[in-house]
Design goal:
alpha/beta, 6-stranded parallel β-sheet, globular
């Protein structure tokens, strides 16, 4: 499984995701972390970085003992957005995915202060929005958000869930009542958690 982290402090992000990677290793699955540029890079550059990383794992994973036919992708926050974009840009490569508390429609960002440095125009926002790029060939997706996420995060999660199901793709979707935007993905470190069990079920059926 490849984990795409959220944007933010590097030291904190590495320490938090190390616990997830260690737990996956303990149950005999390889978990790798994919670093990526921030969003304020040339249009499509960050998406292409991540897609190429996944394709590299598919091509070279066997030499590390990884089954290239069973690649799963997961991410939180910005990583959830990237996970969803990879599903649209590399159909058939990823066998299952998990996205936690992501943004799936970048259009609202064009109308806020962040666009002062994002510099998104309407076509760019649409091109980089998973909601508007649901693939024809999809994979099983676990989609979650925290009950304490902002209304916009929750709304976008619900809309993306509806779009995924409308396209005919398998989906498990719920709200995580006991977690927040920053720690929901860490439930993967708990083998008794609903999120961990859902992911193990997804991987075992791939």
């Amino acid at each position: 499984m490849t984990v795409l982290r959220e944007a933010g402090d590097e030291v904190v992000a590495r320490a938090r995701f190390h616990t997830v990677e260690r737990r996956m290793y303990e149950v005999r699955y390889f978990a790798g972390r994919c670093e990526h540029a921030l969003l304020r890079t040339p249009d499509g550059f960050r998406m292409d970085q991540v897609r190429r990383a996944v394709l590299w794992v598919q091509e070279h994973g066997a030499s590390f003992g990884i089954d290239p036919r069973r690649i799963h992708l997961g991410g939180s926050s910005a990583g959830a957005h990237l996970t969803a974009m990879v599903l649209s840009g590399a159909p058939g490569v990823v066998r299952g995915a998990l996205a936690a508390s992501g943004l799936y429609d970048l259009e609202p960002l064009r109308h806020g202060a962040a666009n002062g440095w994002l510099q998104l125009d309407e076509p760019m926002a649409r091109r980089n929005s998973p909601l508007h790029n649901v693939p024809g060939q999809g994979c099983p997706l676990i989609l979650v958000h925290a009950a304490s996420d902002t209304a916009e995060f929750r709304r976008q999660g619900c809309e993306f869930a509806a779009a995924w199901v409308t396209a005919g793709h398998p989906l498990r979707f719920w709200e995580m009542a006991e977690h927040n935007h920053f720690d929901n993905i860490l439930e993967l470190a708990d083998t008794e958690s609903r999120l961990f069990k859902a992911l193990m079920g997804q991987i075992s059926q791939a």
